[in-house]
Structure formats: structure tokens, C-alpha cells
């Protein structure tokens, strides 16, 4: 196990974000203090609808931060990353064998079409804004406290699901009770549970961030634009031990990246979690703007062996044919669209559930097909052997 110099600080930072959210919710719903606007995830729809509120300002600041620090927001301040890492920690502590196997070998399931997946999800995230544009005149206003009209988290409008949901439950009919707080809270926890525990369990640590998160669409275009952006950098000779690559939760082959790209990790999936830095016992890595130290000792394996995944430089397992991969994404999106009728974030529950179920189904069918073919080959060769024996006798 590598030492966790940065991990303690990072986990502390992610915990502080959650305490802030808790405080924010308590003040908003409990005391009616609304100085910080509505939730941050409403920032994108607000921004596009021309509403400059606290959430919209935060989104702009996060995007600008990418220019200087890369996706450090993801590694250090995203509330969902906190939940993703918490689920990873719990499953490791519980020693869940299936998860441990994926985790120890750093096997990460992924799809080569994750950008297609993320783009469609991003488009769906913006659908309410598009509908808002169609139904209302584009109205620009600046009010830090005024929330976006499109929030439909469990509990919004005193309803458990969205106003358009085919079934619903009215909350707080006789004033706020503890039950009116607990019911939407449990619904919210269930959504996050699917996004983190379930997705992690099937596809490895941080699966939501690697496969599905639509916010990457906004963050990634700002990666590597600015020469001043900090990147994971080689500051001394690398031995090629690969501890950094084996510990990267985003599946980046760090050791090869720094060998091939002038000592820098240029991969846009890097979230600045510093697991690679902590894992390197020879202190070869640092997050820096400076030029990398030269690699004076050649690492022959990197010159001979190609990338495991030549076009995105990730260590992932992609057992499916591309056509099946795309079909699977479409099925998952359809499942998500159905569950999104319950409210925006229920979209993820349906998408993730659909993706897992149909991927397993396809995987099972392919294995059956292979078994069938093998059986045919065996029967054919047994028949041929039988015929030969008859001819000899
Ligand atoms: S990829 Fe998405 S969910 Fe993951 S840390 Fe970044 S913004 Fe958060
Ligand atoms: S390259 Fe390093 S900092 Fe970036 S995601 Fe991987 S382990 Fe984290
Ligand atoms: S950067 Fe460090 S951990 Fe990674 S391969 Fe080189 S020496 Fe090993």
C-alpha cells in the first residue's frame, strides 16, 4: 500500500464540501436563509437560460479553474467525487471480493464511446433549458439569490418526484415534519448509491467519472490550453516500475504518458487526485508547471510495446465489438429517459441500471455463442474421428 501524503488532505477537502452542502440545505430549508442561491448543479441550466445566480457563477469559476489547475475541481471539490471515493473506501473495508479483484489489478471497464455517452447525457441535461427557451422568452437577469426554475431534486416544490412525474407524493402538506425531510433524503441517497456503489462495483473505481459524467464535456475543452496549467510532471528519472499507472483511478497509464509526452501527463481524464504521486516511491512525480526533468535512462518496454488502448491511453478492458458498444449506449439512454420522468437525477439510475443489465446480457449471450461454437467444433472433430475409425476397421 502506498503512503497517502495527499490523500488525507484530499479526502478532508471532499468532506468539507459535503459539510458545506449540508449547511447550505439546512439554512435553505430549515431557516430560510438563501444567501448562496440554489444548488450548484443548476448552474449550467441557469447560465444557459441567462440567469446569473450563485450556482451559475460557481460553474464559471470551476471552468476557469481548469485553465490553471486542470481538473483539480474533480479530484478535490466535486461532491459526487466524494461519494464515489466513499463508496470505494466502504467496499474495500468490507472486503467485497468482486470489487477487490477489479480494484487490486486496477482493471477498469469502460467504453471506447464514452464521449458519445457523455455528450448525449449532457444534451439531455440541457433539454429542460431548450424547452425553457421554447416556452419562455430568453430572459436575462442577475440575482445571486434567485434560484433556477429547473431544479427537480427529490423534495423540490414539496413533491417527491418531478412535477411531470406519472406518479408522485406530496410532502409537507401540514408544515415541515421530520418525515418530509427523511423521504426525499432517502430518495436522494438511493440515486447517489446507484451512481457510486453500484457503478463502482461493476466497472471499477470512479466509473461514473470515467464513463458517464456529463460535466466533463464542459471541463475537458479547457484542458491543456494554457501553458501555465499544472500537470503531473516527471521531476527525476523514472524507473518504469508502473506503481503510478496501477494506482490511477482514472485508468491513465501515467508511466507511459510521462515517457512519451515530454515528462507530462497530458491525458484529459486526469483529475489531479495525486494517487500516482503518492504511489511513486522514488518521488519522480509532482504537479507542476515547470519543464519536466529529462529521462536519461531509456525504458525499453515503452518503446516496443504499444499502448493497451492506442487512441485514448487508458488501461481499460473493452471486450465488446464497437457496434455492440454503441447499441448498449443507446439502450442505456432509453432506460434513463424512461426513469427521468421521475425527475432529472433519476435519469442516472435508469441509465446505469440499463447499462449494467444489458451489458451483462450481451456478455452472457456472447459467452453462450462461444460455447455453442466450441461444442460444434468438438462434435465435428469427434464425428470426423469416428468416420476415420470406421474406414480403418
Ligand atoms: S467527472 Fe463529474 S462527477 Fe466526477 S469528479 Fe468530475 S465533475 Fe464530479
Ligand atoms: S494521472 Fe495521477 S493525478 Fe491524474 S488521475 Fe491518475 S492518479 Fe490521479
Ligand atoms: S513515475 Fe514513479 S511510480 Fe511511475 S513508473 Fe516511474 S518510478 Fe514508478
What this model shows, in words?
This protein folds into three domains: 5-220, no CATH class; 230-317, Alpha-Beta Plaits, CATH 3.30.70.20; 322-392. The mean pLDDT is 87. The strands form three sheets. Strands 1-3 form a two-stranded parallel sheet. Strands 2-6 form a two-stranded parallel sheet. A two-stranded antiparallel sheet has the order 4-5. It is mainly alpha-helical. It is 56% helix and 4% strand. It is globular. One iron/sulfur cluster binds at residues 74, 78, 80-81, 208-209, 213, 215-216, 271. The site of one iron/sulfur cluster has 14 residues, from helix 11 and helix 12.
Q: Which features would summarize this protein structure in a list?
A:
393 residues; 56% helix; 6 strands; single chain; Alpha-Beta Plaits; two-stranded parallel ribbon; mainly alpha; 3 domains; globular; binds iron/sulfur cluster
SSE diagram, text form:
Elements: H1 5-31, H2 43-48, E1 51-52, H3 54-69, H4 72-76, H5 79-93, H6 97-104, E2 108-109, H7 114-135, E3 141-142, H8 178-203, H9 207-212, H10 216-219, E4 231-234, H11 243-247, H12 254-260, H13 275-279, E5 285-288, H14 300-304, E6 316-317, H15 322-339, H16 346-392
Parallel strand pairs: 1-3, 2-6
Antiparallel strand pairs: 4-5
Helix pairs in contact: 1-5, 5-8, 7-15, 8-16, 15-16
Bound molecules: iron/sulfur cluster (3 copies).
Residues 232, 248, 250, 252, 254, 265, 270-276 line the site of one iron/sulfur cluster.
Amino acid at each position: 500500500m502506498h503512503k497517502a501524503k495527499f490523500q488525507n488532505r484530499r479526502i478532508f477537502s471532499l468532506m468539507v464540501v459535503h459539510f458545506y452542502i449540508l449547511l447550505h440545505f439546512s439554512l435553505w430549508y430549515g431557516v430560510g436563509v438563501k444567501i448562496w442561491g440554489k444548488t450548484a448543479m443548476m448552474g449550467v441550466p441557469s447560465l444557459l437560460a441567462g440567469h446569473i445566480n450563485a450556482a451559475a457563477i460557481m460553474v464559471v469559476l470551476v471552468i476557469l479553474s481548469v485553465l490553471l489547475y486542470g481538473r483539480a475541481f474533480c479530484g478535490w471539490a466535486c461532491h459526487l467525487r466524494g461519494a464515489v471515493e466513499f463508496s470505494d473506501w466502504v467496499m474495500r473495508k468490507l472486503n467485497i471480493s468482486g470489487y477487490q479483484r477489479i480494484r487490486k489489478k486496477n482493471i477498469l471497464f469502460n467504453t471506447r464511446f464514452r464521449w458519445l455517452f457523455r455528450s448525449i447525457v449532457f444534451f439531455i441535461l440541457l433539454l429542460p433549458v431548450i424547452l425553457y427557451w421554447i416556452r419562455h422568452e430568453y430572459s436575462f437577469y442577475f440575482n445571486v439569490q434567485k434560484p433556477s426554475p429547473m431544479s427537480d431534486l427529490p423534495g423540490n416544490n414539496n413533491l417527491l418526484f418531478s412535477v411531470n412525474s406519472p406518479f408522485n407524493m406530496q410532502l409537507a402538506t401540514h408544515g415541515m415534519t421530520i418525515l418530509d425531510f427523511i423521504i426525499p433524503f432517502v430518495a436522494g441517497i438511493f440515486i447517489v448509491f446507484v451512481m457510486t456503489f453500484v457503478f463502482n462495483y461493476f466497472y471499477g473505481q470512479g466509473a461514473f467519472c470515467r464513463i458517464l459524467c456529463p460535466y466533463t464535456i464542459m471541463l475537458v475543452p479547457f484542458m491543456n490550453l494554457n501553458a501555465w496549467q499544472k500537470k503531473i510532471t516527471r521531476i527525476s528519472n523514472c524507473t518504469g516500475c508502473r506503481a503510478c499507472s496501477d494506482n490511477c483511478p482514472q485508468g491513465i497509464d501515467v508511466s507511459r504518458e510521462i515517457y512519451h509526452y515530454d515528462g507530462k501527463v497530458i491525458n484529459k481524464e486526469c483529475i489531479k487526485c495525486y494517487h500516482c504521486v503518492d504511489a511513486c516511491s522514488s518521488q519522480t512525480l509532482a504537479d507542476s508547471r515547470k519543464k519536466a526533468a529529462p529521462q536519461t535512462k531509456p525504458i525499453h518496454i515503452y518503446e516496443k510495446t504499444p499502448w493497451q488502448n492506442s487512441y485514448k491511453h487508458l488501461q481499460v478492458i473493452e471486450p465488446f465489438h464497437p457496434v455492440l458498444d454503441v447499441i448498449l449506449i443507446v439502450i442505456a439512454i432509453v432506460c434513463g429517459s424512461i426513469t427521468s420522468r421521475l425527475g432529472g437525477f433519476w435519469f442516472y439510475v435508469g441509465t446505469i441500471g440499463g447499462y449494467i443489465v444489458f451489458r451483462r446480457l450481451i456478455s452472457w449471450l456472447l459467452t453462450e455463442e462461444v460455447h455453442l461454437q466450441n461444442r460444434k467444433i468438438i462434435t465435428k472433430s469427434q464425428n470426423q474421428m469416428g468416420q476415420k475409425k470406421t474406414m480403418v476397421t
